[in-house]
Design a protein that fits this description.
The protein has 130 residues and is mainly β. The chain is elongated and about 35 Å long. It has strands at 3-13, 19-29, 32-35, 50-54, 61-80, 85-102, 109-116, 121-128. It contains no helices and eight strands.
Length: 130
Amino acid sequence: MRWMVQNIRLRWIVPCCMWVLLSMPVLQVMGAEKTLAGVSVSSSPDNEVSVKTYPNPTTDVIFLEVTFPQQVNMEVRVYNLLGTVVARFEEYNSTGGKYRIDLSEQPNGIYFAEIRTATERKLERIRLAR
């Protein structure tokens, strides 16, 4: 199976009449394209990194459940649509776990949780709505 990662640019109009550009990786597998935002594609399920976010949409707190097939150093960052990091944490020699992310101080909107290791990067879309 051949994998190729490319960056695409997406444009959104936010309520204040500004254009927001966001780069998001696209994974091509045998000609099929899937975004990494909430979709995982793997050639072997045993080596797959599992990421779940719930409840989504949320009103204040989101739980991020991550499972790695082996111990890794992990970094999680949560971005708003302007690309500002609103939450961040690291964990070393992790095989995953359940993490609580408090977004109660943030305004309603769309956020992206990025889970990064030395070899992989996953994006999860989070909707904050009160």
